[in-house]
Amino acid sequence: MSPMTIERRYAVIGDVAGHYADLTQELRRLGADPEAGTLPPDLIVVQVGDLIHRGPQSDAVVALVDHFIRTAPQQWIQLIGNHEAHYARAQVFEWHEQISARAISAMRAWWHEGIMQVATVVPSATGDLLVTHAGVTEPFWREDLGALPDPYAVAERLNQMGRLGRKAVSRPGEMLTDRVVPRVGPLWASAGSELVASWVGHRLPFGQVHGHSSCYDWQRSAWRPSVPSGAHIHLDHDAGHETVTLDGGVIIGVDPGHGARAHTAWRAWVSQGTSASRG
Predict the structure, then answer these.
(1) pTM (2 decimals)?
(2) Which of 49, 59, 152, 220 has the highest local Cβ count within 10 Å?
């Protein structure tokens, strides 16, 4: 049979941080039925990692995502965040909260089965965008990835590095070391001081979408002191998104900044695209 082109919605969901009720509310808005465990046929979800910790229902979040991963693997793309890596890869930080052995086992299975990835690519009106948990800095792109110009090649290389257990993927940065690390890995880059700052004055080879942190503190309604000068940043307060426009493209941040309590104003970042299917 000949391939058909199908219009898709790509919904990139930021850090969930254990807030099950907020995740299910957003999935309903996107047309999913969390109770029945179904997704609308046109929807592809990309979750940027950090499903767990901080909020009250990490175990329920993992169970829900595990259901979607197992029943609709082509429609739920799960990326690894530094909090999932705490259980799936070598630990590089301490965390005081406990989650169930069942949730830990599920996340480890995602990683070892190759279901949970380091990176993916989503289409957008301005070009294909690389999606990772925390973003790829200019020095990491240049020195660790060989300045690959294509986001698909970068995603493939990052996923290969993850499968091979390369430590560079989890190379810690300012959040753990209290100093800016230019080649910080894509699980740990701080949005302002490491990710965006590294690209100011350089041309972006492709746009990016990331979670993990933000230039703007959504909980306190204030800019973080690490925001670099020379960066043009647009805030979408209703969605909890920030878009940094740089030479060559954009860097879109989708981390809503959930703490023990969820940030009330947030949504998935949604893009339209097409994919091939056989009819």
Answers:
(1) 0.95
(2) 49
